[in-house]
Write a structure and sequence with these properties.
By secondary structure, this protein is an alpha+beta fold. The protein contains 17 helices and 39 strands. The radius of gyration is 27 Å and the shape is globular.
Length: 657
């Protein structure tokens, strides 16, 4: 076994690899960019080496620097993690040429499977079912339109060298081909240094299901069952689970056999994933093979009991697989949610900033894989994923319910994040039933995410918690000042969304009660003022509620719901309706930048007449291109920026007359 390995990656996957390596007694070396000098993976590793400035193209994608670093510290092997150079055959070849072991499949397998066009041709030759499409490289938009017309709309434009949702667009018309083809090329070039794209038929109501495989250098290849990855946004996975609620034993056996057949065709040696699109009739089509560790690997670990990083290390060290196909058993159910730095209330636009508060959930069946800590900086240079939250239980519904509870206790402040959205999905009845597809988010949250619905029972629970928390805070402040304050039968008015509710609250350390109308809500809790998550029971219902102090009350967050509850005295409550409303500034005459990013292009000039829906600018943030469009017909008075400019949130891009 290796004595020292270098990890050619950053963030949570670098931390994940370090964890297993340390358990196995292997020393680890972290590489880092200037932006990651204080990163968690740097702190966890035994050694660390600076490899360049913040942009990935100048640091984590510089293979020569990484190989030189490995030689400098005497690392015997390099683990690439996922993304960056993990599926770069040339890098793997150069690692081996330098006398260092590449912890992954050989360059030939990476080359064959990493190119989506070549991999589909190889899959067809191996007898694996593939999606109808044009597998040649497409030169320009005109050719793309012709091919799409021949295949029949809708079609998928896909980067040949890519993954992770980068360089992918669905097109349902010539106009969408014109826009999507160029955007896909640009994203592919930016993310992978390769702008080749191809087109294939888009399967309606598809499910994205993948098979995990393991192969060693002795000719042994097995599969570890499937993962369902259908909950996606912009073709990037958001929620994954194992097993799939859709796949039966017969289909699993067939898919597993085809995955193993494909892996054998390229003499695969390591952990890898064969991805399929599955239609409503259980017909499945090969999509691509990821020749690396997947982001969602923890759910497979949870239901099989295997450590996939350990398996990769052992395979790379020349060991035989320790398990045969008949040894693989599945136990329980696992759900994974990706915690992203993004604002779901603003169409999931990326968010950057510092993690001012960061508290992760804990408990049986809960696992958090992250690469950050309180005080970490989420920058524009890298992927917006902050962490992965995994829950495991006996059944799917139990795993979902545990996930909802864990999300409610996951406290992040300082950046926008998608936790409320994920919690809303966990409560969605269609998701809970397992009736999902890759269109789930677009169909269930048409028009964007506005927050989970607030029903009357939950509203009353939140009102009771706000009143109780306020009384406890008053009691603590009085005690610190040497005063005595009675927190028994206090009359208060709680205002939520402009509606006032008179309450009577009694609060003490550990318990209390709040009367709302004719109903009393007993409360039991160990919560103290200042603790970010309120845990306990309200009227016998277990709750985990994030609680933030406001000037006159609290912001409460749970189950995907966010409310601001003002807690007032009866006198203040009587005056509250007389307070003037604050009017928001009129920004209708401006196109504002919705996220921090880099201007890729401007498609309008001073004096231009534009129509509603017309593309006006393209802004790149966290490796993704975002097209900004006109909300209505109008005339442009002035364009304020140019291509190449770096913009902050709400920076003015252009102004209308």
């Amino acid at each position: 076994m290796f004595k020292k390995i270098l990890i050619a990656n950053r963030g949570e996957i670098a931390c994940r690899i370090i964890k297993t390596a340390k358990r196995m007694g292997i020393k680890t070396v972290a590489v880092y960019s200037e932006a990651d000098a204080d990163a968690k993976h740097v702190d966890l590793a035994d050694e660390h080496i600076l490899i360049g400035p913040p942009p990935a193209a100048d640091s984590y994608l510089k293979g020569a620097k990484i190989i030189a670093a490995a030689k400098q510290v005497g690392a015997e092997a390099i683990h690439p993690g996922y993304g960056f150079l993990s599926e770069n055959a040339d890098f793997a070849k150069k690692v081996e040429a330098a006398g260092i072991t590449f912890i992954g499949p050989g360059p030939a397998a990476i080359s064959a499977m990493g190119d989506k066009i070549a991999s589909k041709k190889l899959a067809q030759a191996a007898g694996v079912t593939t999606v109808p499409g044009h597998l040649g490289v497409i030169r320009d938009t005109k050719e793309a339109i012709r091919i799409a017309s021949e295949i029949g709309y809708p079609v998928m434009i896909k980067a040949s060298a890519g993954g992770g949702g980068k360089g992918m667009r669905i097109a349902r018309s010539e106009k969408e081909i014109e826009e999507g083809f160029t955007a896909a090329q640009n994203e592919a070039r930016s993310s992978f240094g390769d702008d080749r794209v191809f087109i294939e038929k888009f399967i309606e109501q598809p499910r994205h299901i993948e098979i995990q495989v393991l192969g060693d250098s002795h000719g042994n290849i097995i599969h570890l069952g499937e993962r369902e990855c259908s909950i996606q946004r912009r073709h990037q996975k958001v929620i994954e689970e194992a097993p799939s609620p859709f796949i039966d034993a017969k289909t699993r056996e067939k898919m597993g056999a085809e995955a193993v057949k494909l892996a054998k065709a390229v003499d695969y040696k390591s952990a890898g994933t064969v991805e399929f699109i599955v239609d409503k009739d259980h017909n499945f089509y090969f999509l691509e093979m990821n020749t690396r560790l997947q982001v969602e690997h923890p759910v497979t670990e949870a239901v099989t009991g295997l450590d996939l990083v350990e398996e990769m290390l052992r395979i790379a060290a020349g060991e035989k697989l320790r398990h045969r196909q008949k040894d693989i058993k599945f136990k329980g159910w696992a759900i994974e949610c990706r915690i992203y730095a993004e604002d779901p209330y603003r169409n999931f636009l990326p968010s950057i900033g510092r993690l001012k508060r960061y508290v992760t959930p804990k408990g049986k069946g809960i696992r958090v894989d992250d690469g950050v800590y309180e005080g970490s900086e989420i920058s524009i240079f890298y992927d917006p994923m902050v962490a992965k939250l995994i829950t495991t239980a006996k059944t799917r519904l139990e795993a979902i319910d545990l996930m909802r509870e864990a999300l409610d206790a996951y406290y992040i402040r300082g950046i926008g994040h998608n936790i409320n959205f994920l919690a809303a999905v966990m409560l969605n009845q269609r998701f809970r039933s397992g009736n999902i597809s890759t269109n789930f988010i677009a169909e269930e949250f048409e028009g964007g995410f506005k927050g989970a619905p607030l029903d009357a029972p939950l509203k009353n629970i939140l009102i009771a918690v706000a009143a109780f928390a306020h009384a406890r805070a008053e009691e603590c402040r009085a005690f610190e000042g040497g005063e005595e304050v009675s927190c028994q039968n206090q009359a208060r008015v709680v205002v939520v969304d402009g509606a006032a509710e008179a309450v009577l609250v009694s609060a003490g350390s550990g318990k209390g009660e709040v009367r709302i109308g004719k109903k009393t809500y007993p409360i039991e809790t160990g919560w103290q003022p200042g603790v970010p998550v309120f845990r306990g029971t309200v009227a016998g219902t277990g709750v985990a509620i994030e609680i933030d102090r406001l000037a006159l009350g609290y912001r409460l967050t749970t189950c995907g719901v966010v409310i601001e509850a003002l807690v007032l005295t009866p006198a203040q409550g009587a005056l509250y309706p007389l307070m003037p409303a604050v009017e928001e500034a009129d920004t209708s005459k401006f196109l504002l930048c919705p996220m921090p990013g880099l201007v890729v292009s401007i498609a309008a000039h001073d004096g231009d007449e534009v129509e509603a829906g017309q593309a006006l600018a393209v802004v790149e943030a966290m490796k993704m291109e975002n097209i900004l469009r006109a909300n209505s017909n109008g005339i442009i008075k002035k364009v304020h920026v140019k291509a190449g400019d770096s913009l902050t949130v709400d920076a003015i891009i252009l102004e209308f007359e």
